[in-house]
Specification:
Layout lengths: L12 E5 L2 E6 L18 E6 L13 E7 H6 L8 E2 L8 E2 L1 H14 L1
Antiparallel strand pairs: 1-2, 2-3, 3-4, 5-6
């Protein structure tokens, strides 16, 4: 089982799974009782390749690869045997089925 830590801030959460840094960015400025920005279906899930974290001018998260609406990431059926293809022409930028299942579980836990 993957282990990860979730850091909450102005982005709703940032966590690492395998080679991926995942950031969840709220679409609204609303806040729950927790004081954190509220997530809705228009919130965005950003994927970064943490292989390049802080290298050659890339940010601490790594190289930005792709982003999806939260509703797409959570509710669409997984692709390619259960994983997620972040960039069709780059073979390394495919999230494995196990990592994608774990990411979806983390995202559901934030709602």
């Amino acid at each position: 089982m993957n282990k990860t830590s979730i850091i909450r801030s102005e982005v709703r959460a940032t966590f690492k799974v395998g080679r991926w840094t995942v950031k969840v960015v709220p679409a609204t400025e609303g806040h729950r009782k927790t004081g954190f920005p509220e997530l809705d279906s228009d919130s965005v899930v950003q994927f970064y390749d943490n292989k390049y974290a802080g290298v050659n001018g890339f940010p601490p998260e790594g190289q930005f690869v792709s982003s999806y609406y939260l509703r797409s990431t959570l509710f669409e059926k997984p692709h390619n045997g259960g994983g997620l293809d972040l960039c069709g022409y780059e073979p390394e930028w495919k999230v494995s089925a196990d990592d994608y299942a774990f990411i979806r579980k983390c995202l559901k836990g934030l709602l």
